[in-house]
Design brief:
This protein has 300 residues and is of the alpha/beta class. The protein has helices at 34-45, 51-54, 60-65, 99-110, 130-143, 160-166, 185-188, 194-206, 223-235, 262-274, and strands at 49-50, 70-73, 77-78, 88-89, 114-119, 148-152, 173-175, 210-217, 240-245, 279-282. The protein has one domain (31-294): Alpha-Beta Barrel (TIM Barrel). It is globular, with a radius of gyration of 22 Å. The chain starts with 33 loop residues before the first helix and ends in an 18-residue tail after the last strand. Pathway: Protein modification; protein lipoylation via endogenous pathway; protein N(6)-(lipoyl)lysine from octanoyl-[acyl-carrier-protein]: step 2/2. Keywords: 4Fe-4S, Cytoplasm, Iron, Iron-sulfur, Metal-binding, S-adenosyl-L-methionine, Transferase.
């Protein structure tokens, strides 16, 4: 009798977990209209960078349509390689000492009542670009004394003298984004430190500034981690917090772990206010500069 030949049983490979599908509440309209076209024209003519474009902001149509924009100074190449950010990473070559004048003139031409200014990280510069920061704010105030300003400043890597210069120009709001909870820093902001960013906010508050920060949701954070982050921010003097949904800019960037429902954004807003924050802007499409003009008058 022939021996029975037993063949190994080949198990089918486990299917990869399905990626979460983008929900309907994240749909946005394409930018259109004469006001948007005018801002587009001014940005191009003055050779300006905006985080609206470099960061693929979903609110660009709404904000530019209202004649506002967030300007990005010190070039459009960043020395950091954060896993969430669409801004190009590399060795910057641009360092234009005339940029403050051009930004100030563009803001005046646009006639904006509230301007937001941000920048790439310039870790290779001894002063982290602080002198350009200072002059941009000062010259904008000189040309448009009625314009209020928010500066969204980068991590200065504990160069506190640079921080002092960055926040001394007379801006009404100083923002520095935490971006995520402490446990995800190595993954999301590998060249930053959670405690160092908290200290930067604390020092900014101690200097007498109105403080603001932002956190992206949907990267894998838990509710308890979000509560801790809000408590840490309150303990370090934060006044205003923005919460929005992370959206993967390209396939090379970190994937979305979860699309957060608007109800949970509303819950986090209530929690943040209950824990001592003065103002919380929370929603799937919220970004750092979204409704920024409202944050100037928040009682602190």
């Amino acid at each position: 009798m022939d021996e029975l030949l037993l063949l190994p049983v080949i198990q089918p490979e486990a299917a990869a977990p399905a990626k979460p599908r983008k929900p309907d509440w994240l749909r946005v309209k394409l930018p259109v209209g004469p006001a948007y076209a005018n801002v587009r024209k001014l940005v191009d003519e003055h050779k300006l960078h905006t985080i609206c474009e470099s960061g693929n902001c979903p609110n660009m149509g709404e904000c530019w349509g209202a004649g506002t924009a967030t300007f990005m100074i010190l070039g459009n190449v960043c020395t950091r390689s954060c896993s969430f950010c669409a801004v190009a990473t590399g060795r910057p070559t641009e360092y234009d000492l005339d940029e403050p004048r051009r930004v100030a003139e563009a803001i005046k031409l646009m006639g904006v009542k509230h301007a937001v200014i941000t920048s790439v990280n310039r870790d290779e510069l001894k002063d982290r670009g602080a002198s350009v920061w200072y002059e941009t704010v000062v010259q904008t105030k000189q040309l448009s004394p009625g314009t209020t300003i928010e500066t969204l400043i980068p991590d200065v890597k504990a160069n506190w003298a640079a921080l002092d210069t960055m926040i001394a120009g007379g801006q009404e709001v100083v923002s520095h984004n935490m971006e995520t909870v402490g446990s995800l820093y190595r993954l999301v902001r590998p060249q930053a430190k959670y405690d160092r960013s908290l200290e930067q906010i604390r020092r900014t508050k101690d200097a007498g500034c109105r403080t603001k920060s932002g956190i992206m949701l949907g990267l894998g954070e838990t509710k308890d981690e979000m509560y801790k982050a809000m408590d840490d921010l309150v303990a370090n003097g934060l006044d205003i917090l923005t919460l929005g949904q992370y959206l993967q800019p390209t396939k090379r960037h970190i994937e979305v772990a979860e699309f957060i429902h608007p109800d949970l954004f509303a819950h986090y807003k209530e929690e943040g206010l209950a824990r001592g924050l003065k103002y919380v802007e929370s929603g799937p499409l919220v970004r750092s500069s979204y409704h920024a003009e409202r944050h100037v008058n928040v009682p602190i």
